[in-house]
Amino acid sequence: MRARRRTTVLAASLVLALGAGPLAAPAFAASAPAAAHTTTTDLDTQALENALKNLPDQDATAALVRVGGTDGTWRGSAGVHDLASGRAADPDARFRAGSTTKVVTAAVVLQLAAEGEVRLDKPVQHYLPGLLTRDFKPITVRQLLNHTSGIQPGKSLGNTFEELYAHRFDTLTPQEVVASAVAKGPEFRPGCKQHYLNINYTILGLLIEKVTGQSYASEATRRVLLPAEMRDTYFPGTDPAIRGPHNHGYQAVKRADGTTDFVDVTDWNQADRWAAGDMISTTADLESLLTHLFRGDLVPRPQLKEMFTVPKGIEGATMSAGLQRFEFEGRVYWLKSGARYGYGTLIAATRDLSRTLVVSVGATDAKSEDMNPVTERIARAALK
Questions:
Q1: Pair 1, 10: CB distance under 8 Å
Q2: What residues in the chain have per-residue pLDDT under 70?
């Protein structure tokens, strides 16, 4: 499954749409998939079981899957908790959920819009005066939500895995990221293109804090995590560890002699991802998020429609406020993917919640432009 960018992988292809030191490449011993089935009515359970076979492998060390909705439910897991011990992966483990954080951020902004604290058509310059220079034309809150702002990406702590890994315990603040993005000037006039970038949601995090007078984490927890019953989800701030039970994440690194090392990347300071991608969650919590959100429990329905509206008149646009639209075998799904080193996440659902999917994969190249092969197998099996 290929894509121009990771964020458009499913839409384009599912048409379907070193401190601790590396581990030497293991002789993988595949674990048997552990699956629990309940009320399956319209699911290909054999295909789902097959999708989890032979893990761990070169592409993933573990996979955790929840399929739900009125079509039926299925749970499955495979792989290992860590390569050193080889013990079975914990199906209830926490993991880095990456850009699925944006779903939560969008929900908070839309709640503020419902309360009259934010107007989606009002420029962000009104809420955050002085943040953008005069080089930027007015950029509405809605254009941040649907990635049509034209703001360029901010800096990071490196351009290669090796550089980033060397700085994995350093802190790059959201304010520094935004300042570096603003210094580049605009990429395009607001509203004429769609370019999915974290910077849009980093700025939305700043907007939430300015409007509410509270931290992003506290507002997101109060407004979304608690009412969505996401009891094992949290925002780590500058803490590099994953609290509580979790499976280890690894990055495959090619050596000069052609062999592969699997570097443990579990501990990593994600402060620069912040409102765009630092959330730690579980498959059960993300399933609960989808259910509560799509039912209208979190965002009032007049504002919820923003999450199911792709901007018109922009060629190739698929992103809405926090989600992405794609069609597969006659069904429209709304999804969000996420990727941090060692962990790949996918959530998807039909608007009527007849089918939901949450996948966490211990991806060994989570930041690749290609979709992880294990995630692809699972998505094809779950959504057909």
A1: yes
A2: 1-40
Helices 174-183 & 198-212 angle (0-180, nearest 10): 120
Rg over CA atoms, the chain: 20
Inter-residue contact 149 to 139 (CB < 8 Å)? yes
Q: Between β-strands 260-264 and 280-281, what pairing exists: parallel, antiparallel or unpaired?
A: unpaired
Encode pLDDT of 230-264 as tens digits.
999 999 999 999 999 999 999 999 998 989 999 99
For 23-56, letters b (16+ CB in 10 Å) and e give eeeeebeebebebeeeeeeebeeeebbebbeebb
The secondary structure element, H or E, covering residue 292 is helix 283-294
Between CA 62 and CA 82 the distance in angstroms is: 9
Concatenate the DSSP letters of all residues of 32-93 into one string. Answer: PPEEEEES-SS--HHHHHHHTTTBS-SSEEEEEEEEESTT-EEEEEEEBS-TTT-PBP-TT-
Residue located via tokens 């089918």: 355
- Copy the structure tokens of residue 293: 């959100």
Instruction: Report which residue type is found at 260.
Output: T
Beta-carbon contacts of residue 7 (< 8 Å; ≥ 6 apart): 99, 196, 319, 324, 337
Q: Residue 384: which residues within 8 A CB-CB, separation 6 or more?
A: 44, 47, 328, 329
Alpha-carbon distances of 307 from 146, 252, 322, rounded to whole Å: 9, 35, 6
Q: Measure the CA–CA gap between 20 and 362, rounded to whole angstroms.
A: 18
User: Structure tokens of 48?
Assistant: 């789902």
What is the rounded distance in angstroms from the CA atom of residue 52 to the CA atom of residue 58?
A: 14
| pLDDT number for residue 35 | 59
Do 286 and 100 touch, CB atoms closer than 8 A? Answer: yes
Q: Determine the distance from the C-alpha atom of residue 344 to the mean position of all C-alpha atoms in its chain, rounded to a whole number.
A: 8
Residue 83 in contact with residue 56, Cβ under 8 Å? yes
Find, among 146, 104, 157, 108, the residue nearest to 286 by Cα: 104
Q: pLDDT tens digits for 268-290?
A: 999 999 999 999 999 999 999 99
d(CA 35, CA 33): 6
CA–CA distance, 102 with 208 (Å, rounded to integer): 13
